[in-house]
């Protein structure tokens, strides 16, 4: 697997806006990602500048002569198709997936429906609106999915608002936490086993899956703190049999293509320890680029260092619409 950087003319990329910060619940993570990307691009000679959409009007991108944008925003307003739509209107090429793929992938429930329709495995689940979540209904959910139950706001990332209800008594608290971030909740069967992630770079038939990462967090809880703050989480490569890793990479590529993703993405997977069956959880279309993030770690395994990864991604920036 190789990614050719020799043909990239850094000067021809023009003035580049690194979009980070934003106003979503994932702003702190975005600030870390964007700072890293900005420094990396500047280090390889790109005329890159910080741009926080929470503090400036997007129209400034045009009036100030930016030629393209590197999206390092996470969550709503940056990863859900709304920003992508605005950049389409401005005619400013951007990194990552387009409007539709971004919008669909940001909705974990819709993503599951597409994957299931095409024969991909994802945990059993229920999607319920705020109005449906009476105490009586919440009590019945473990009867349908078993315990523990994963309770998630389906339009958030970075483990924000997610909790594992281990018993009936924990269900209501988990629901109230998640409702603080979303008006529809996703209840998911808890798959017991190793937690994995697999990144993809590229478009369509040329897209390539990077090596699979196994995540070993303290207490088996890969939460916000263990993702971004502590240094105790282990990220391991080569822990799976070669045939199983190839199977997971093939399924992730199919999942990526079905959603219409481009540029890059990262799928989260649970591997059921009882039979080593992988289950897709979600697809991230604007993955983290912090010091703890998984795409840079996987890219390094194929010889693509962090600055080169950022440059390669920037060079792929484009619009949905044809010129």
UniProtKB/TrEMBL annotation:
Mg(2+) 2 binds at residues 282, 284. Keywords: ATP-binding, Cell shape, Cell wall biogenesis/degradation, Cytoplasm, Ligase, Magnesium, Manganese, Metal-binding, Nucleotide-binding, Peptidoglycan synthesis. Binds 2 magnesium or manganese ions per subunit. GO terms for molecular function: ATP binding; D-alanine-D-alanine ligase activity; metal ion binding. PROSITE patterns: ATP_GRASP, DALA_DALA_LIGASE_1, DALA_DALA_LIGASE_2. GO terms for cellular component: cytosol. InterPro entries: ATP-grasp, ATP_grasp_subdomain_1, D-Ala_lig_Van_CS, D_ala_D_ala, Dala_Dala_lig_C, Dala_Dala_lig_N, PreATP-grasp_dom_sf. Its EC number is 6.3.2.4. Mg(2+) 1 binds at residues 268, 282. It catalyses: 2 D-alanine + ATP = D-alanyl-D-alanine + ADP + phosphate + H(+). The keyword Ubl conjugation does not apply. Residues 112-315 form the ATP-grasp domain. Its cofactor is Mg(2+); Mn(2+). Pathway: Cell wall biogenesis; peptidoglycan biosynthesis. Its main location: cytoplasm. Belongs to the D-alanine--D-alanine ligase family. NCBIfam families: D_ala_D_alaTIGR (TIGR01205), PRK01372.1 (NF002378). Cell wall formation. This is D-alanine--D-alanine ligase.
